[in-house]
Amino acid sequence: MLANVFAADQVLMPVGSAQTLEAGFANHLVSQRRADYMNPVLPPVSSGGSAQTATLLARRPTCYAGFASGLSNVDNSVNLATYCQLIMIPKKFSAVRLGWIHQGGNGALSGLRMVAASTTDIGDLSNTNTTLGKRFVTPYRDGAEQNTLSFAGWKAVTWGGSATGSATDKGTDNYDVIWSDLIAVQALPLASDPTGRFSGYYPLLVRVFPGAGFYSRGSYVGFSDAAKFLTDCGPMVVLGANRGGGDHVANLSGWSAAGTPSFSDSSVIPLLIEAYGPYDVPSVLWVGDSRFGSAPNSESATYAYRTMSHRFEQASVADGKAVKTLRVAQGGKTTAVFFQRVNEMLLDAVIQPTVAIALGYSINDGFPTEQLLAEAKGRVVQFVDTCRKTNKIIPMLVPMFPSSTAGYGAMWSQVQEFVSFCGGLAPIVDPIALYGGLTGAWQPGWAEDDNHMTPDGQTNLAANLYAAAKLLF
Known about the structure:
By secondary structure, this protein is an alpha+beta fold. It has eleven helices and 18 strands. The chain is globular and about 65 Å long.
């Protein structure tokens, strides 16, 4: 019916008018959607100031970042490895809170230690055991290494005042997320950035000893390759290294600039960052299976970091924006698993990403049946409700993907109803409408197999998701 009304409006528009009823209707819906989530209220105006909306007041002025997904558990009792991660933050920060993800299944985590620092020199991004290739493993300021606890060097990270952190085992595949106290770390600009690659970005350096038992870590093929990830990522640089032989957090001198670290695709620690500064930077939490958490099959053996969230970040960079992501997506997991993880992140940790994008139904739940779709509706409702209750987080849903060349067959009408159900709860981007045909089968050219997109398909969907999400930032 609306299509007929919009078509009639095109005929009846006055000559020279550029505002169609359809465009006005869309603008109204976007404005109303924002209003539904933001509920602006004007605070008192102080002398010399101006009114701001409660959106600004209700949200803490933060930037969120989290790089690791697809975690596995590793025993550290023999290698006693310490990790270093550097991540570029697209805002000037004055304090950070650090989260650590512990994936259940191998017991509790204990003895976690961290230090954090700013640095003015991250080296040449070569990930080599040269002076500049390993420069990022310790803080530098005024041209000198600052590998001590000091104002110019490392800051101790604590948990409730304790020097060590611990996490519980919440069961196989489930997450426990523990957060540090607020740590005063002042952002510093790079001393040299000749190409302007990092204009507006500030390095945060974190060293972690994950205890002497089992801990969780990620891995991306191509992550440590200067010609791959460190070329693809633009200003969204993440660097990782590790060094065995003991707790190099309690004993900082055990890993100095003169030491020899290892660079590998597995130097991806499950670190979450909440950076505080004078303004908010948009951030997106990703919740889903391999369609969000893995690279396309044809790239997974060489460019495994090219996930949907990576492509989304690149879309934001191409648009001249800075949008960071937190990744809770992982291949092979069901909606029951990844929605547990997001509830852990949002409810227990009380974090405030701007938008949380969730997959409504996973291929890992099985081919849809009436019962499975009903269970998925319950999880989607809980997710949306959690976002609405939790500090102004805007949920966005990706209901389902197309399926094979045959589609959903006798379940097609119920799949359509599930998509409509999701659209009634939150903003959606619908891959079936974008890339599917009759009965929900893939249109030619978008999929590599029955369930997974081509690289071009993922890039296209990431661009669509970014275009939709930025209306909500």
